[in-house]
Amino acid sequence: MIEVNDIHKSFDDAHILKGITTSFQKGKTNLIIGQSGSGKTVFLKCLLGLFTPEEGTISYDGKIYNDLTDAEKRDLRQEMGMVFQGSALFDSMSVEGNVKFPLEMFTKQSKSEMQDRADFVLKRVNLVDAHHKFPSEISGGMQKRVAIARAIVMNPKYLFCDEPNSGLDPKTAIVIDNLIKEITEEYDITTIINTHDMNSVMEIGEKILFLKDGLKAWEGTNKEIFKTDNETVTDFVYSSDLFKKVRQMYIEERN
Ligand SMILES: Nc1ncnc2c1ncn2[C@@H]1O[C@H](COP(=O)(O)OP(=O)(O)OP(=O)(O)O)[C@@H](O)[C@H]1O
Q1: Where's the ABC transporter domain (predicted)?
Q2: What is the ipTM of this complex?
């Protein structure tokens, strides 16, 4: 579980995060949504320990980040997996090489242990025949699977995903969303996903945090987001006619 208490982050005179308090449960897919520039990436980077908030605290299963020693912070970072926007695979390394990379960097595992772990996570993301291919030889959806395999290879407690569906067709995006949700439940990970994809919000948003101008404008579940009358949320989430109709049908079905 990650608990965020009143964090503020500024760059020079620009006050970007203006006091955000929230929490993210383990075993759940937590989504962060909001317009471009609302502070989602800055918030995610604070959770990753890449930015230090000037005020407020972030705690990871009860451990307050600022109270940790440098060695404890390093240990905590190793409990974090990250799926970057655009996958961010190493082009010069094979699929298997990409997945083994964190093990080679951060563990003292033997070659056969690394091989077993790489085989296991690649199988878990349903990639069994691509070990020796290079990123340029596989599809965007397969690259995302490799990125997910690499993010979970160290058995993380916390998984952060920045726009995991960007550049994917809608069908592949759903497969990737479901894969992230399954893995989150299976390994009891606290997963936080930064997204613009309203389909993800509806499908896997067990908890949704809506940021606006660096503030928490709303939070709730995907079921609650259908029912909310909060105009800031409805203006943003239901800006397309299609989603407006879906919401109307949902409300009528429930009445
Ligand atoms: N390192 C930085 N230095 C200065 N300003 C920054 C830095 N990183 C982000 N910002 C500013 O913080 C604000 C929020 O940016 P952020 O990237 O968090 O938005 P976002 O909600 O993730 O947008 P998008 O959905 O487009 O990715 C922007 O005004 C941005 O210019």
Answers
A1: 2-238
A2: 0.97
